[in-house]
Amino acid sequence: MYHVELRQFPHNMCKFNLSERELFDTIVGGWAQGQWIEMGERKWSPHQAKLKVLEGPHLPLEELAMGRGWRNAQNQSEDVTERVLAQAGQSTQTPVVPRAAPTGAPVEQLQPLLGSDPAALLQAWRLSAERRPELAPSEALALAEATLRSLDAEER
User: DSSP label at 28?
Assistant: First the structure.
């Protein structure tokens, strides 16, 4: 199990008993890419907040009660922050290229949908998502496409 603490003065947020998948999908994957993440009632920036990840046993509810959770997690767990961030960073360095569309279409049929420069689209999409974290992924993609179209138009 993983236990996470996010800290940005004066705010502090802890989350306990996360699976590895939950940890990477909801926190560490975006954090390693420099993206804002949402946890609790706040959005947290990796450029401003501090993240600590502990790996240890499942903590029952009675060990989390009355504000004792993080102290109990620290006493029973190992700090693995650097390791999981490095692991998440390695997985984000290799771009994900689909082997086939859900309908079974080969990747060659998808290539025209990505435009003439798929790497530029991916980079623009990431920047859009980072700068406008309130947008849904599809909205950030649409913004990235519009930005690239306007840049192409300026070059002509």
Answer: I
Contact 22, 71 (CB under 8 A): no
Cβ pair 48, 39 in contact under 8 A: no
Q: What is the pLDDT of residues 87-109, one digit of tens each?
A: 887 765 444 444 444 555 555 55
- Residue 84 shares a structural domain with residue 113: no
Are 44 and 111 found together in one domain?
no
Query: Shortest CA distance to 43 belongs to which of 124, 126, 132, 128?
Result: 132
Boundary of a domain, candidates 93, 116, 142:
93
Q: How many separate domains does the chain show?
A: 2
Contacts within 8 Å (CB) and 24+ apart, 95-103: 95/119, 95/122
Can you give the residue range of the structural domain that contains 47? 2-93
List residues bridging with 122 in a β-sheet: none
State residue 143's pLDDT score.
Answer: 83
Lowest-pLDDT choice from 20-24, 89-93, 127-131: 89-93
Match 């002509």 to its residue by tokens.
Answer: 156
Maximum pairwise Cα distance, the chain: 66
